[in-house]
């Protein structure tokens, strides 16, 4: 089934590509680097279908709702209320050869997504198009053949196409989020889709299990667990569950994979001091990376793997430092506040998100690598901890106690559109966003 | 014919009987020798390897002092149990984001050291714990520094390092889940468990 699914998805074909002008893609629709992003008003009317097919009617509503939800999740769009639409594509024309664009601009839409979905036995034929209503032209047109259970994959792919066309960035629709939940009575690692759907329990250790870390190819998750009584490091293959264990005396904690390599950094204390070591993906020690008295924990890598940010108590309070791996040169980058931990290097490489304590509360901040002008993204809403960037750098997942128990939330990289990702039993902490996972599929 | 039957019967009964007593005799002699040896040592003899079938007076003599010795052991065991409880019941507390031992913490550790000197066979696990206000990962490191700091104090007093193992639970096992300074200060602790 899985093999079939990706074969048919790959069978997606471009058709009737009408470009508004000579350029291949118009990245200036959305400037993702702007903190004052104007949300683009977009209309997603219910997809058309064969009106004689009950399955078709059901799927057309479900798939257009799904696409709306995914686009809304990005924070780039203002989703227009279907109640306000003048034109109902389901009642007019299925191929949109004669879309009346003024009917869409009149309701405020600058972009329009149309779709046609046909269920033929176990196969779905889905046509999806993105229009610029102001320029009255089609931006993207795609046709997908997929298994009846793979509708969500198709919608994720087309959402990715839209975001790529408008921002030049691949988005996060093929990513997952690992997080810790104590819903079973023990802290265990769980996985869910980027939007909080499809939760699965990843570990069943029946012991404190924390600090998940994805390898940059998405194939491995390292974590710390007390399975054998001590906080040891487990390195687990996501697919076949093969495993290596680092169980040295003392703590074996805070793993962070080197981008593009089967290597990871982690804090070990067997030497008597808590230092960060570089390990192979099978847990063998390559070298010691830090060598100061005091705690050195929570490494996070720059996207090029040349630098590592981490937390150190070397100055007396926990602060964030950046170390050049080749030269060993170390610079402190947080100076404001007495408790700055949990650094997470942005996928673009220009910022570090972290949690800082001020007035007795933890909040999420971002800071440039020069250590200047930290920007506070959360506030007045409980403790906010453990920031983790989406693979495209547009969103940050974090945990918050704003509603009492700790739960997972998501916001844009600028702190806007804060919303809860999950509502499940127990408390959830330390979300870790995976890299894009599509490239690993068979 | 009848006679011969009687002879056979007699033999059947007597011969094994003789064999039995013979073997019995041998073992009881051996046991007596053992008893003699034991007596000559007259150390706090364990109850002699009882030669049950032979009612010699020796075991009777030995039995008399036994109840006394057991109750002494019991008293000692009770004392030790109380000492172990004292070792485990009293936690050592720390300031926020600190693994330094305040004078009160040092007093508690000195008491523990006295017990540990008396009971040299006892070894302990020292658990380091934190309150929930820090972040999980840094607290795992801080918890370890707390347990190591307590261990160092005890070994500096002359106790063998091999008697202590440390483990950090960070903020994973709070004693009090309250959100007050009182609860937090209870959770910032080193806890001691006799192995």
Describe it.
With 442 residues, chain A is mainly beta. Chain A folds into 2 domains: 15-167, Rossmann fold (3-Layer(aba) Sandwich); 176-440, Neuraminidase (6 Propeller), CATH 2.120.10.30. Chain A has 4 helices and 31 strands. Chain A has helices at residues 2-10, 54-74, 101-105, 151-167; strands at 13-14, 40-43, 48-49, 77-79, 111-120, 123-132, 137-147, 176-181, 188-193, 200-201, 209-214, 220-225, 232-237, 243-246, 252-257, 263-268, 275-280, 285-288, 296-301, 307-312, 319-324, 330-332, 340-345, 351-358, 361-368, 375-376, 384-389, 395-400, 407-412, 419-420, 428-433. In chain A, the strands form 7 sheets. In chain A, strands 1, 2, 3, 4, 5, 6 and 7 form a 7-stranded mixed β-sheet that branches. In chain A, strands 10-9-8-31 form a 4-stranded antiparallel β-sheet, with no helix packed on it. The N and C termini of chain A lie close together (12 Å). The model of chain A is unreliable at 1-25 (pLDDT under 50). With 195 residues, chain B is an alpha+beta fold. Chain B has 6 helices and 4 strands. Chain B has a 4-stranded mixed β-sheet. Chain A binds chain B through residues 187, 208, 210-211, 224, 229-231, 250-251, 253-254, 267, 269, 274, 295, 297-298, 311, 313, 317-318, 339, 341-342, 355, 357, 360, 362, 385-386, 429-430, and chain B through 97, 133-138, 140-142, 144-145, 166-169, 172.
